[in-house]
Design brief:
Rossmann fold; 9 helices; 7 strands
Length: 259
């Protein structure tokens, strides 16, 4: 028997069954089409539209107290790091409240600070302790260690006295603000020798003290001002105080540590 004849002999399905199967197939095809459309709509924004531009970040509010000697205070004949630091902080999006008991317009800045020309770290610590209630800040910048003389005092005694003063300053700041962030600088080196020959040993002690005093709630960050410092290029004629280039170097390191 031929195949066509055999096919003619097969029973035909009822019309209702054919209609049912046709209806099911139609619904399945519609479902597949709707699913494909839904996927296309979901993916389209990621493919055809660029991500919205980020809105400018809000200003970062921070209060800062700069503590130290003449290198912090500045003067008419040399530069303080505070001057370029103001500009760098503003450019980085910081809105700063400067804390301190006095200002030094001759330095090029009228911002408040706790820099005291001619004072040793021990003297600076005593002054800061008197003013600390009004100097509560989020961040303390500490750079103090000059104004001793290795020709008149044993270097180890100088280092011990200076680091002891630093400890008192940090303790006073924490007493007012337990969460204060301390940027604790290894001091810039000087070509005025042998007077300041104790500075390398002092900087080693500062690094150890920073690690000892740091805590999660109140970090103490050791800021390496010594590396890359060249007193022959970065100071004025006295071989101690920063010139404009030196002040910029210091400001850049402060900003990096603050971030």
């Amino acid at each position: 028997m031929k195949l066509c004849q055999y096919a003619l002999c097969l029973p035909r399905p009822p019309r209702c069954a054919i209609a049912f199967l046709s209806n099911c197939a139609s619904r399945i095809l519609k479902g597949v089409a709707l699913y494909a459309i839904a996927i296309a709509v979901a993916i389209a924004p990621c493919v055809s539209h660029p991500a919205p531009a980020e809105t400018p970040s809000a200003k970062k509010h921070v209060s800062i107290c700069c503590v130290g000697d003449s290198i912090t205070e500045g003067g008419a004949s040399f530069r303080s790091y505070r001057v370029p630091l103001e500009s760098e902080l503003a450019a980085a999006g910081y809105e700063v409240e400067w804390k301190g008991s006095h200002a030094t317009p001759a330095s090029g800045s009228s911002r408040a600070h706790e820099g005291w020309s001619g004072k040793s770290a021990e003297q600076v610590a005593a002054i800061y302790a008197r003013n600390a209630d009004a100097d509560v800040a989020d961040v303390l910048l500490l750079h103090a260690g000059h104004n001793h003389d290795a020709e008149r005092e044993p270097p180890e005694r100088i280092v011990s006295a200076v680091v002891g003063a630093h400890r008192r300053i940090i303790a006073a700041a924490r007493e007012r603000n337990p969460k204060v962030k301390v940027l604790y600088a290894q001091v810039i080196e000087s070509g005025k020798l042998p007077k300041y020959s104790y500075i390398p040993a002092l900087n080693e002690a500062i690094a150890r003290t920073a690690a000892e005093l740091s805590r999660p709630s109140s970090p103490v960050v050791c800021v390496d001002m010594a590396t890359g410092w060249n007193w022959a290029e970065d100071t004025v004629a006295d071989k101690v105080h920063p010139n404009a280039k030196g002040a910029e170097k210091m400001a850049t390191k402060w900003l990096a540590a603050l971030r």
